[in-house]
Structures are given as C-alpha cells and as structure tokens.
Amino acid sequence: AFLSSTPSIDLETPRFRTVMTQTEVTATCVVHSAYDAKVSWLLDGKDPTSRTQVNQASSTTQSISSNLTLPSNQWKTLNTITCRAEHRCFNPTEKTSNVKG
C-alpha cells in the first residue's frame, strides 16, 4: 500500500519560442496524489528567489497544480528546474527537467 501512495508528477516547461518572445514565462507542475502534498520548486537545485512567483492552485482530491512564473531572462540562465512534492505519508518525490537551451 505504501508504494501506491507515491505521487506521480507532470512538469511542463515553456516552449523555446515563448521564452524568446515573452517577458515572463510559466512552468506548471501537476502532482497526482491522494494526499494534500506540499509542492515546492527548485531552480538549479536551489530555492527560488523572492522575485519568483509561485501560485499553488486549489487542489482537487487527486491532483495539485502549482505554477512558477519568472522573468524570461532569468529562465534563460537556468540549467534545471525541479518540482518537488512532500507529505508525511510518502517519501519526498521530485521531477527535474533540463531546460538549458
């Protein structure tokens, strides 16, 4: 039963064209879990700065959506972006995307 509680994570990053044409970009993380997990973000393995806007949408019973918005010029300097889900009922789970153009 413990294994089935581990959430699955979908991480969507903005397209290259979006990064080149918009001043701000948004990455979306959807955590599929029966638990109300805490969703956090890591940029190049570090916590985002205060300039980074994180918006955790209302969670349904099956998934939690979190959006990370940051300036395009900051996005262009990143190597990796990580979405992490934590809850006491499962081991911390994360998904990392390599975003280096």
From TrEMBL:
This is Ig-like domain-containing protein. Residues 7-100 form the Ig-like domain. It comes from the Eukaryota. Pfam families: C1-set (PF07654).
